[in-house]
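This section describes the prediction task in plain terms. A model, or a person checking by hand, is given the sequence of a single protein chain and must write out its three-dimensional structure as a string of C-alpha cells. No templates, partner chains or ligands are provided. The sample shown here is typical of the held-out split.
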Amino acid sequence: MCLAVPGQILEITRDEALGLVTGKARFGGIVKDVNLTYTPEAVVGDYVVVHVGFALSRIDEEEAREVFRTLAELGETQDLEIPEEGR
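The expected answer:
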C-alpha cells in the first residue's frame, strides 16, 4: 500500500536550466526536501500531497489537518506535531 501525506511548503527553489522546481515542506514538524515540478502553481504556505518525495497536488489547509487528525486516530503520528490552523 502507498501513502501520500500532506506537507506545507516552506520554501521553493527553481532551477531554470534543468526545469526543476524543488522545495522544503513541513510534515507535522518534520521538514523534508520535495520535488514540486508536478505542482508548478504551488506557493510558499500551500499544502501539497507528497508521495515518495514528489508533490502530486495542492490541497487546502483544512483537508491537510483532517488527514493528520485521521493519522492521529490511527496512532500514526507519534513523532509528528499536528498542524494547527494558520501554521
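For orientation: The CA atoms of residues 28 and 83 lie 6 Å apart.
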